[in-house]
């Protein structure tokens, strides 16, 4: 297996992995929470612009098969003591590659890149139902900091 910074040449494989990620999310989301993630326009995780403005690593097997990816961004937070945030936008490993340290290698590559670019901390969000993800982030030394709640409310406003 090898892990490299993704380029435009990897775009089709990243899009295929993203489709697998979307399908996986549908299998783990509780029925009550599915509408929280619904979009009128599909979320575009990868395109040429996002690929060049993000930090993306892709893992490939010995046969060059795409196994997974990680995508991160850096944000300045001027009002915080920890002011340079490395944010993990997405981490996904194909089901057939799980348990083979692919996620850990992707995570370590992104963490190293964040360090090189001056980040003083890193965060991410993950779905409450995604125990696989939650357990992974604990194993690599991340701590739970916040909990997000949501509730669908009825909109009683009428338009004139």
| CATH level-3 fold name | Aminopeptidase
* Name of the top-level CATH class: Alpha Beta
Tell me the helix content.
Answer: 25-40%
Determine the mean pLDDT.
88
- How many structurally independent domains? 1
Radius of gyration: 17 Å
Strand content: 15-25%
Question: In order across it, which strands form the biggest sheet?
Answer: 1-2-3-4-5
Fourth CATH level, the homologous superfamily: Gcn5-related N-acetyltransferase (GNAT)
Oligomeric state as shown = single chain
The helix/strand series, from N terminus to C terminus, equals EHHHEEEHEH
**Helix count from the secondary structure assignment:** 5
The main sheet comes to: 5 strands, mixed
Specify the structural class: alpha+beta
The outline comes out as globular
| Uncertain stretches of 5 or more adjacent residues | none
End-to-end distance:
60 Å
How does this model look, in words?
It contains five helices and five strands. With about 160 residues, the chain is α+β, with helices and mostly antiparallel strands. The protein has one domain: Gcn5-related N-acetyltransferase (GNAT) (Aminopeptidase), CATH 3.40.630.30. The longest helix has 18 residues. It is globular, with a radius of gyration of 17 Å. The termini are far apart.
